[in-house]
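Lab channel / #folding
Pinned by the channel admin:
"Please post every new chain as: sequence first, then the structure tokens as a reply. Keep commentary short and put observations after the output so the thread stays searchable."

First post following the new format, from NK:
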Amino acid sequence: MKMTLNKAVVRSIQKSFLALAAASLLVPASVLALGLRIPNQDAEAIARGNAFAATANNPSALYYNPAGISQLPGHNIELGVLNYFGIDSTFVDTTHNQTKTHTDYEMQPVPQLYYAFTPKESKLSYGLGVYAPYGLGLQWPNSVSFANVAEEGRLLFISINPVIAYKPHPTLTIAAGPMFNYSKLKLRNAAVPGGEFIFRGDDFDIGFNAGILWQPHDQWSFGLNYRSQSTMDYHGTTESTSPFLKGTTKSSAKVKYPQTVGFGISYRPTEKWNIEADIDWTDWSRLDSVPFKSTIVGDFVLPLNWRSSFFYEFGATYQLPKNYFVSAGYFFSENSTRNEFYNPTVPDTDLHTGSIGFGNRGEHWRWALAGQLITGPYNTVTGSKTGVDGKYQFFIPAATLSVGYHF
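Reply from TO:
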């Protein structure tokens, strides 16, 4: 649809597009202070606070440390489902009357699938993982004061990850593989009078991951994993439902997803205990700005200036009789965004996450169930260029079930 607009209207729409871009390109993740990452990929690992890079002894190693699949003889397959029982984000409007607003309640399942195969007496292992390293969504009521900036965001990001691991020495394994990534983005806000802007776009990209697992002693193990950066050039449309400006136009936005590095140390003082500590770095500083293109308002660059951040992860597992086990863990994640460019679609803050779980490792079947509580202190935002000053806080319960089979 072709539209003819005067300069004043174009400037007004461009301002709205800036708000739209800010929200659409910062679509919320499952654990919001993680930038856009979903680090929870397996119940057994989650129960340990995701301190799993140096243990990596089930098929989900394809995500946590792909070198770990060398520890799995024969065929191993695992299916998992992570369920967030409502991302409860609270906004306190400190610039007006201290009004509290909560995001809409939603249950958001995130499935994972892993397969690993190690032939007998072979130094090579093979694996295939299908998982979501980024994504999910958040929706504010349309009555919230910043509805012109952010109402709803949805991000789908799926990685298909084949891996080959090589064991040159009985104590050492190295692994690597490509990641075929597909992503789909949706954003909705009330940036136009009497209607909404709705942005939709998708793209495909290729990256890779790699890992090293070294166990020089029965009691000690060291793990290192790396995930490459990825760039999604979302091409799609922006729809306006306003009676003053109806129509659909072509739009695009280029988002640079970060590289990540994780390192873990596992200590096993007895056969019953496995204690691990990990540190995980995400290079969010790569997301300094986002080029945006539109057939209505032309090209412009959205400044973001995110900063790199860390996870600090700790966990322990205790082996019970009859192949049962219990685990507990904790991790802390740092804020990745800056107040100047803050957007409620990703209301980032420091977060504390506690977890607990249990399971069984049988001859053929294995399963694990884990629960999490994710929360943090209020993040007070002042001086934001988007006019979203206030206080933001989260409370997010989650549960994960993983089931595996060995043959």
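NK: The first helix runs from residue 7 to 24.
TO: also worth noting, The CA atoms of residues 93 and 173 lie 52 Å apart.
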